[in-house]
Amino acid sequence: MEIPPNPHKTQKVQTPRQEIKSISDRQRLPEIPADPPPLLQPMLEHISVDLGLDDLSLLDLRGVDPPPALGANLMMIIGTARSEKHLHVSADRFCRWLRTTHRLSPYADGLLGRGELRLKLKRKNRRARMLNSVGASDSNNVDDGIRTGWVCVNIGTIEDGRVTDHENTDEQDEDYVGFGGQSSGVKMVVQMLTEEKREELDLETWWGQTLGRHTRRRDRIARAREQHSSESEGLPASTGSDGVGLTPLSAT
Description:
Strand 6 (238-239) and strand 7 (245-246) form a beta hairpin. The protein has 8 helices and 7 strands. The chain has a 5-stranded mixed β-sheet with strand order 1-2-5-4-3, with helices on both faces. 19% of the residues are buried. The protein is extended and about 90 Å long. By secondary structure, the protein is an alpha+beta fold. It has helices at residues 23-26, 40-50, 84-102, 114-133, 169-174, 195-201, 203-234, 248-251; strands at residues 54-61, 74-81, 107-109, 150-158, 186-194, 238-239, 245-246.
């Protein structure tokens, strides 16, 4: 005699396992787009090899219309830091490398300086020891001013970079809309995030959708121009009685 299954018995639900990337996959450099600024390749190598940021991705936002709030002709690098301390130390070393090696003036939003980070870590450890001495534990929800999870390094404009879309430059100057101003150089921004913060913000998906909308809009405009030019070539002009050129449709 078969025993019917118990409907009240709980069943184990198997949660999908996250794919664990190998070290080589995490340290693989992104592909270099066309017309890159000369500093792009050594910058990617420095961020990956010297600073140790993983899962680097490169977003080529040059030619996006309207331009992002960070400026026109933008290229963005996104990398993952292994801890909060690694995040701030890497951002600080990266800014120093840009100043000393390439004479640039970057600005790091969200960066805690060496002295500030050391002081806050010392206060946090002191607080933890005091709580442990009375048998209490520090709450993880307390904002200690250290766990920013995100540092945006604005490198500025690199004048040697070229714009990918060179068509209708005169029209772009007249019809330019958006933030910032047009420039012949490329503006570089590096987004450094912890793994948790990167998953929360998901900048790649957001900017990927923006690039997709821009690409579809550009394709529609290109098809409309091709259709208009083909129709203009297929309608030969005729001359009216007053000598004014008329198309076959307007002559009738």
